[in-house]
Design goal:
Elements (H helix, E strand, L loop, with lengths): L10 E7 L3 H9 L7 E7 L6 E5 L2 E5 L1 H4 L2 E5 L3
Length: 76
Amino acid sequence: MTLDEVKIGHRTKIIAVNGQGALRRRLLDMGLTPHTEVMVRKVAPMGDPIELHLRGYELTLRADDARNIEVEEESL
């Protein structure tokens, strides 16, 4: 599953950051690293962008970029 498929209010854990070059580096620099817990806070009406909560801050990410982040559902 990728980050753009996660429903609002669900928590996930990043398992891999795909992409190459500058895109991958930018995602990692924003704190989207493996084993990080992420919660989807909001999704814009047309589905792009997505607002995330991670590491104590809010981050807005384009859906195209979110497709490069593989996640797994957090078990309760």
